[in-house]
Amino acid sequence: MSTTSAAADGPRTTRAVVYDPSTGETRLRTLTIAAPRADQVLVRVVSSGVCHSDLHIVDGDWPTDAPLVLGHEGAGIVEAVGPDVRDVRVGDHVVLSWFAPCRRCEACAAGRAWLCTNTKAVSNTLPDGSTPLSDENGDPVLPFLGVGAFSEYAVVPETAAIPVDANVPFNVGALVGCAVTTGVGAAVHTAKVQPGESAVVIGCGGVGQAVVLGLRLVGAHPIIAVDLSPERLESARELGATHTLRGDDPELTAKIHEITAGAHHAFEAIGRPATIESLPGLLRAGGQAVLVGMTAIGTKVSIDPFDLADQGKSILGCNYGSSVPAVDFPRLAALHQSGRLPLDRLVGTEGTLADIHRAFTDLRTGVGLRTILHP
Ligand SMILES: NC(=O)c1ccc[n+]([C@@H]2O[C@H](COP(=O)([O-])OP(=O)(O)OC[C@H]3O[C@@H](n4cnc5c(N)ncnc54)[C@H](O)[C@@H]3O)[C@@H](O)[C@H]2O)c1
Ligand SMILES: [Zn+2]
Ligand SMILES: [Zn+2]
Fold it and tell me: Residue 1: its pLDDT value, please?
């Protein structure tokens, strides 16, 4: 039990990147953030990665009525804790989770925290439905996915602030908060890839590169990386891809069958309907497609059900790499520290919160690796 409580601390100001749906603008603003209550912790954010999920908000793929502090892939240091916090202490280095599991519902009790039925992540609030953030008029601003990491400070429940070894670089910690847990988890947990099985990864941004790292970790072979950006394909090869192919190659499916005789696993890490529809055709009988990329809400795709049934193929949905933050974050960080998972190689350009527009432009155009912002 920590002896330090923030009850007397009161609110403070925080500079944060805010997306306002009423104007469509994203800009740096000064907000007020409440002191942590009950089981909440106040985290001083040190590093936050720019994920395509932030861009889904800005592009209107996932509509919101309220202004949001963007960012959900962050790491920092605990500065204050609420009176009921038990497992996290002031000074702990933590990775933020955009999925604060309740640890009580059936899914949590069964060890499937990523399916928690009490999380409010997609409502962009803390689990009790509240927001710690308000603007200069006192109007509420919501933390994207319950985190809001493009900010000097974030207030989250302690179940969303997972302590990691203090020697883990903050940039690596930030990526563990989304891209790495999602991508490595997609290979390890969702697909349960076995050594020697073949795999294709379509889309090699931050998430897809992490899928490649997860595949290498478990000994998949061959590993085929597919993207449109030569730079991304080059880095996928350095991270463990044995083959690289262009996504717009008209012979793509034939080449994948030539290399694998039909893949055991095909991961989609873009969220693009045409690519998702292509997945079953890349698989051998009994193979599985894993949907990691997120589409705009309401998107429909067309799949040939006879092929799935006749060939015993399956399609798996992957939320947060089917991972449990409290278990997987420290493990992934330790694998990095041991040299078995070179997560630092996913880090791209670094900048400040004021660089958000350049970061979004790079993300849209597939330039560079994962951008990391520092408040
Ligand atoms: N399932 C989850 O829990 C989860 C978690 C995090 C992110 N996501 C989603 O994963 C997706 C990827 O996120 P990211 O941050 O890596 O995005 P990103 O923009 O960095 O990566 C997408 C990659 O796809 C490539 N691409 C685009 N069109 C292509 C095509 N036709 N063929 C081949 N490659 C193509 C781009 O060049 C880019 O490298 C997003 O939809 C994001 O919302 C899902
Ligand atoms: Zn993300
Ligand atoms: Zn739960």
Answer: 38
Specify whether the CB–CB gap between 368 and 37 falls below 8 A: no
Quote the pTM value.
0.97
How far apart CA 173 and CA 329 sit, in angstroms, is: 8
Are the CB atoms for 112 and 190 separated by under 8 Å?
no
CA torsion sign for 32, 16, 145, 112 is: negative
pLDDT tens readout for residues 233-271: 999 999 999 999 999 999 999 999 999 999 999 999 999
Verify cis geometry, omega within 30 degrees of 0, for the bond prior to 222. yes
| Residue of 55, 145, 189, 207 best suited for mutating to test ligand 1, as the one with most atoms within 8 Å of CB | 207
Could you give the C-alpha distances from 207 to 50, 139, 157, 183, 239, in angstroms and in order?
11, 34, 25, 5, 13
Q: How far is the CA of 122 from the centre of ligand 2 (A)?
A: 12
Which residue ranges form the domains of the chain, and what is each CATH number? 12-170+343-374 (3.90.180.10), 183-321 (3.40.50.720)
- Residues with beta carbon inside 6 Å of ligand 1? 51-53, 56, 178, 182, 202-208, 226-229, 232, 247, 269-272, 275, 292-294, 318-320, 363, 366
pLDDT at residue number 99: 87
pLDDT tens digits, 292-332? 999 999 999 999 999 999 999 999 999 999 999 999 999 99
Percent composition of the chain: helix, strand, coil (DSSP 3-state, to 5): 35, 25, 40
Tokens of 139: 């109007």
How much distance in Å is there from the Cα of 239 to the middle of ligand 3?
Answer: 34
CA dist., res. 368 & res. 206, Å (int): 10
